[in-house]
# Entry
Amino acid sequence: MLAFWGRSDGHEDLETELEDHDTGLVRPAKARRSTLWESDDPIRWERDLLTLFVRNQLRVALALPILAVLFALTNLSWITWTGAAAWLAIILCVQAVQIYLCRRYDQSDKQHAPMPEWIGILAASEFLYASCWSLPLFVFWQTGNDLQHIYLIATLMAVVAIRMMIASNFMPIVVAGTGFITFNILVRCMLEGESLYIALGIMAVIVELFFIQLARRLQCTARDMLIFKNQKEELINELKSAKDQADVARQRAEEASEAKSRFLATMSHELRTPLNAIMGFSEILSHEMMGPHAVAAYKDYSSDIHHSGHYLLNLINDILDLSRIEAGRLELEDKPVSLADEAFDCLKLVDFKAREKNHQISVRFPGDFPKVSGDPRALRQIWLNLISNAIKFTPENGRIELSLERKSNGAAVMSLTDNGPGIPPEEIKIAMSAFSRGSDATHKAIDGAGLGLSIVHGLVKLHGGELSITRGFGQGTKVSIVFPPKRVLDGTRVDILSPERICSPTQRHLIELTA
# Structure
């Protein structure tokens, strides 16, 4: 017995393109569905279609018995009640057997059920049921009673239509049931030999063929629905598996990040203690506080040790700050801060390096520029990193300009522009990531760990600002940082937030939320 009938032309327009997960290629959905159909176990789909028939049969279990009772009652006009009762008892017993078999199959373990046996049993029960419905054609048939004949044929065609709707998902059941009833109608009509009956028989066959074609289309639709349902379930399972893997990877990444933070926090203290001793003693030696060195070069060596220790200490501080920013553990202390004052303080710290390279540093700060609400140490570090980078990468006799300005929406903008080599557009995103250095720094062997801009970017984001890097004058670099209007202290806000006006951190927080 065939598991399925062929696809109908009505379903060949399903050409939606889907991605093949096995090859990564995109191909039509019909081709992918066909491949899935050929590669999968046919019994699996046979089982699903048989399950649809069984459940449809159970849902309408009372429909045909009621029709059989009405049919027997109406035939009392032509036959005796004993004949009608006997036929009704037979049809109800066969119907009960079929319902019992359907319930047994529905309650069984379908994954391990012997499908050929179940198909044979259910098809045989349908054939027996069709035989019972065909009995009136030969038992109740009264010669010469055309009205009864038409009534019997019409009732059986109605039974054929009902069974077709119930069993349309499984063609073997359709053929075993409605096909046999139609065959008996044709035989009964041919035995009469009259043109009217021959026409009725031919019409019954044509209607049956139409029903079978319709059932084939319905079965193809049901089969496609089962395939799509299976694909959806497989996709859901794949998504669930991918989500579980992503959750595991995220958990591992969080554990690794936490372990990294603990390691950096521990190592920073472990490294700072000996570094402080090294820097202290090297500074004593470089200044010859314990007396002049026997060898003059020792003074230079001790200065180099002190410089290297200072560089290493700054690197440790940068790494620790970056780890805190990435972990979201760097807490800001919001206070009214003058960006201009912080810039001047930073310029004093780097003045010696700027004079070594003969840089010309200019500032363009409006006298009435308002203060901003932010962390003084973080804002000072932003200025210091930007200025240090500009001095480091700008060639000798270069120009560096610091500026402050207000935007039309009230935001504050701090900018630094130089006439150095600049950062290529394709390297801007890389330059803002940790431990990344541009091509110019690599080619010219400029010292640094590549943490400056990444720390600046993190500190700016903590303040709710935006950092952008563009070309400046002389095709150099212009770094702009925009602080949102809510951080700009205009009018009485700066007086309200001043330290001498606030008694506690709670008051400050409430004022910042409502100001």
Remarks:
- DSSP finds 18 helices and ten strands in the chain.
- The first strand starts at residue 17 and ends at 19.
- The two ends are 82 Å apart (CA to CA).
